[in-house]
Amino acid sequence: MSTVAPRPIDIVEGNLADLDAVMTIMDAAFDPAFGEAWSRGQCAGLLAQPRCWLTLARTGPHEMAGFALCHFIIDEAELLLIAVHPDYRGAGIARTLIEHCRNDASAMGAKRIHLEVREDNPAEHLYRQMGFETIGRRPKYYKGKDGQKYDAITLSYNISGRNISS
Ligand SMILES: CC(C)(COP(=O)(O)OP(=O)(O)OC[C@H]1O[C@@H](n2cnc3c(N)ncnc32)[C@H](O)[C@@H]1OP(=O)(O)O)[C@@H](O)C(=O)NCCC(=O)NCCS
User: Residue 2: pLDDT above 50?
Assistant: First the structure.
């Protein structure tokens, strides 16, 4: 599915100062039909919490291609949000971001990393490719703008005892 010529990507840790760039990606990346995008207030509130971290994929000092937002609780991590700007898709950026998040989670002592995805979101394919497995389902959790309801699928990746970079 690669549509973009490979460009060097820097993966760096972000913070509240990157919120403008995060919201630019957020607005461009998520289909408004499903209401999955977070508001600026939600992102800021989360980033103010301890043990939440933001991972950025940069293509230059002032150019961001994607981000991932994670949370660590007790001995588990959650990948709360991941988005790549449409101009940069298909170049492996989301895969790279997830690998970094898994490494960070492992370094913090997480045994597993979870995420939730709307059924029918093409991102599910990516997560499964990377070894995430279904552990739960919330029926009709998401509501599309057209009124259609979609299940939320909870996926999990077992970090313990795995070579998580592969
Ligand atoms: C999902 C998303 C983050 C993927 O970003 P990306 O950088 O294009 O993904 P990658 O290039 O790393 O893809 C890696 C693999 O995942 C699969 N994949 C990624 N996006 C896919 C899509 N839309 N449809 C089908 N497969 C997809 C591909 O098989 C690809 O493998 P390949 O290179 O062997 O073809 C991006 O499409 C996005 O921002 N979507 C909107 C936001 C969203 O829905 N986020 C997830 C829910 S929080």
Answer: no
